[in-house]
TrEMBL record:
One Pfam family cited in the UniProt record for this chain: MFS_1
InterPro entries registered for this protein in UniProt: MFS, MFS_dom, MFS_trans_sf
Organism: Endocarpon pusillum
GO MF terms, alphabetically ordered: transmembrane transporter activity
Membrane topology of the entry: Multi-pass membrane protein
Annotated ranges, domain Major facilitator superfamily (MFS) profile: 64-481
Gene Ontology cellular component list: plasma membrane
Sequence segments annotated as region (Disordered): 1-34
Localization per record: Membrane
Name used for this protein in its record: Major facilitator superfamily (MFS) profile domain-containing protein
Record field: transmembrane: 64-87, 107-125, 132-151, 157-180, 192-213, 225-247, 296-316, 336-353, 360-380, 386-411, 423-442, 448-472
Amino acid sequence: MRFSPEHKKEHNSSSPDSGSGRGHPDGDFHNRDPLRSHEYEDEQLIVPSHTTERRLMTKIDLRLLPCLSILYFFAFLDRTNIANAIIFGLREDLGIAPGSTQYNTALTIFFVPYILFEIPSNIILKKLKPHVWLSICMFFFGLVTVCQGLVRNYSGLLATRFFLGLAETGMFPGCFYLIGMWYKRAEAQKRYSFFFSSTSLAGAFGGLLASAIGKMDGLRGYHGWRWIFILEGTLTCVTAILFWFLLPDFPEDARWLKEDERAYVKARLEVDQGKSGLDRAITFKDVVNVFKDYKIIVGGFMYFGLIVPAYGYAYFAPSIIRTYGYSPIQTQLHSVPPWATAFGFSMLVAWASDRMRHRFLFTLVPIAIGIAGFAILLTGTRNLDLRYAALFLVTSGVYSAMPVIVCWFNLNIGGHHRRSVGSAWQIGFGNIGGIIATFAFLQRDAPLYKPGFAICIGFICLSAASCTVYFISVWGQNKQRAKSIDMGLTDYERTELGDEAVTYRYQL
């Protein structure tokens, strides 16, 4: 790989990606893009002679995305399979009183360590490398899931749910952070959505698996709900051991790429996002400086507003569907189609968003679909077919908007230290909504659950408002920076400033 810089004194604010490269999936790797940093706009990136950009990105996709998607698939499965277990007698076996909020409390305690340790987890991930930290976390949340299937009382359930949250704390922000360090902003959404859609697949697969495992009820003296935890947790632990050897690290450390391929991947990301500063440790001052940017706070509320309906559905969908008069096995099977539909729709949204190189409208449209679904449920209609159809709108809307929001926010943060803190903040703060979600659907509100559906609509509207504020903010800063003069910042200064540099352009 080599560069052919043409040093110019004046920079065109709408022209990153200059020159002509080869092998780009869209035909011309160096089409001018107003979102790109001015610092690199005049450099020509040449793909290593033994490959093309398309082949290289496919190689990265096949190594990175399956591993991260499977990892988060198990994380989401292990945190939400309690919703399937409750249908198979967990409540009765552990002495959870009918009509009480004990089950809701057990769901809530998961989020306490999950929220508190998001930022420290991303800092540890950067120090230990992703394949080490994420594999360790995965093994331990699998082990805790097995223990969850062996508890004998309600106190044991609370303890295992707490440690499950602690073990899973690094999964989601760590994976999103890692993906953002491999892909350009204009090509990242379909990768983010494919990864995030593992939650939809986990929901669908969880229902199918639970319906099969439920038939093991009584085997070796264990009820079906115990086997759900034991088998799924064991499979997670085995996969974690394999991922120690398979999970990729950052581009700079990827020994499975040739040296010139690593250099090219790093350079193309610098063209898009500026230098990352991987080699510099994150300090407490870095954390404080990140939170001086009000857009970081807004990004947290964008995600926070969708977490309530997302977890509300994930934790209570089987209970909601059970009120439609199905048996336990039929309930699990009927929970599958809405999740499967959400996967397909989210990938369609991601493809269109990357194609148009735009994010904002692709948050609002799915949010509107989600609101429509909850509005139907809130009416309290007795038409069971219509109520079931509304679940498709809920999952398709909520679970399509979430990956767009996280991708949009994360890839608008420049540099390792700012992105590490910012991504962890968004996920950590957002998951406070999980606590609210666990108390949104109370057993006493069955079968219509009107308070829960009303709460979900309110928080989705909060997310839509936050997305609008964020869009106006980054659009305004792009316009302001287009009129600013580049004062000749050094490479070090640009790296330290990240997306706060005057040469940086946010994606809309």
